[in-house]
Amino acid sequence: MDEVRVRPLPMHNGDVIEVRYNGLLAKSGADQVYLHTGMAYEYDWTNVENIKMNRAENDWIANVELKEPVKLKFCFKDSADNWDNNNGRNWSYTII
Protein backbone atom coordinates (compact mmCIF):
# COMPACT_ATOMS: atom_id res chain seq x y z
CA MET A 1 0.00 0.00 0.00
CA ASP A 2 1.24 3.50 -0.83
CA GLU A 3 1.96 5.70 2.16
CA VAL A 4 0.61 8.81 0.39
CA ARG A 5 -2.29 8.76 -2.06
CA VAL A 6 -3.79 11.76 -3.81
CA ARG A 7 -6.90 11.93 -5.97
CA PRO A 8 -8.10 12.97 -8.42
CA LEU A 9 -5.12 13.00 -10.74
CA PRO A 10 -4.41 14.99 -12.81
CA MET A 11 -5.19 18.01 -10.63
CA HIS A 12 -6.98 21.05 -12.02
CA ASN A 13 -7.20 24.55 -10.57
CA GLY A 14 -10.35 24.79 -8.45
CA ASP A 15 -10.52 21.05 -7.68
CA VAL A 16 -10.90 19.77 -4.15
CA ILE A 17 -8.47 16.89 -3.77
CA GLU A 18 -8.21 14.17 -1.16
CA VAL A 19 -4.87 13.36 0.46
CA ARG A 20 -4.54 10.04 2.29
CA TYR A 21 -1.55 9.39 4.54
CA ASN A 22 -0.33 6.17 6.15
CA GLY A 23 3.36 6.96 6.46
CA LEU A 24 5.98 7.20 9.17
CA LEU A 25 3.95 9.32 11.62
CA ALA A 26 0.85 7.14 11.29
CA LYS A 27 2.92 3.99 11.76
CA SER A 28 4.62 5.53 14.81
CA GLY A 29 1.28 5.93 16.62
CA ALA A 30 0.64 9.66 16.14
CA ASP A 31 -2.51 10.74 17.96
CA GLN A 32 -3.11 13.50 15.38
CA VAL A 33 -1.65 14.25 11.95
CA TYR A 34 -1.71 17.57 10.11
CA LEU A 35 -1.28 18.18 6.41
CA HIS A 36 1.16 21.09 5.98
CA THR A 37 0.40 22.39 2.51
CA GLY A 38 0.80 25.32 0.17
CA MET A 39 1.08 26.40 -3.42
CA ALA A 40 4.58 26.80 -4.84
CA TYR A 41 6.31 28.95 -7.40
CA GLU A 42 9.72 27.30 -7.67
CA TYR A 43 10.84 27.11 -4.02
CA ASP A 44 8.60 29.71 -2.34
CA TRP A 45 5.39 28.43 -0.77
CA THR A 46 2.23 30.61 -0.66
CA ASN A 47 -1.17 30.05 0.98
CA VAL A 48 0.47 27.80 3.58
CA GLU A 49 -1.91 26.03 5.96
CA ASN A 50 -1.91 23.22 8.48
CA ILE A 51 -5.02 21.12 7.97
CA LYS A 52 -6.11 18.74 10.72
CA MET A 53 -6.49 15.30 9.16
CA ASN A 54 -9.24 12.84 10.07
CA ARG A 55 -8.57 9.21 10.86
CA ALA A 56 -10.26 6.54 8.76
CA GLU A 57 -9.15 3.00 9.56
CA ASN A 58 -5.35 3.04 9.04
CA ASP A 59 -5.23 6.27 7.01
CA TRP A 60 -5.30 9.95 7.86
CA ILE A 61 -7.38 11.96 5.35
CA ALA A 62 -7.68 15.65 4.45
CA ASN A 63 -9.21 17.62 1.60
CA VAL A 64 -7.48 20.57 -0.06
CA GLU A 65 -8.95 23.15 -2.43
CA LEU A 66 -6.54 24.02 -5.23
CA LYS A 67 -6.38 27.81 -5.40
CA GLU A 68 -3.72 28.52 -8.00
CA PRO A 69 -2.56 26.82 -11.22
CA VAL A 70 1.00 26.18 -10.00
CA LYS A 71 2.28 23.31 -7.82
CA LEU A 72 0.71 21.81 -4.74
CA LYS A 73 3.38 21.01 -2.17
CA PHE A 74 2.84 19.27 1.12
CA CYS A 75 4.28 17.27 3.98
CA PHE A 76 2.93 16.00 7.29
CA LYS A 77 3.43 16.72 11.01
CA ASP A 78 2.00 15.29 14.19
CA SER A 79 0.85 16.94 17.42
CA ALA A 80 4.34 16.48 18.94
CA ASP A 81 5.83 18.47 16.02
CA ASN A 82 7.49 15.44 14.38
CA TRP A 83 7.62 15.80 10.59
CA ASP A 84 7.45 13.50 7.58
CA ASN A 85 8.75 15.57 4.66
CA ASN A 86 9.63 12.76 2.24
CA ASN A 87 13.33 12.89 3.19
CA GLY A 88 13.47 16.67 2.66
CA ARG A 89 11.80 16.56 -0.76
CA ASN A 90 8.16 17.06 0.38
CA TRP A 91 5.45 15.92 -2.03
CA SER A 92 4.72 17.99 -5.12
CA TYR A 93 2.04 17.84 -7.82
CA THR A 94 1.56 20.15 -10.81
CA ILE A 95 -1.87 21.75 -11.06
CA ILE A 96 -3.14 22.20 -14.61
Automatic annotation (TrEMBL):
Molecular function as annotated in GO: starch binding
Domain Carbohydrate binding module family: 14-96
Domain of life of the organism encoding this protein: Bacteria
Signal peptide (UniProt feature, chain positions): none
InterPro entries documented for this protein: CBM25, Ig-like_fold
Descriptive protein name: Starch/carbohydrate-binding module (Family 53)
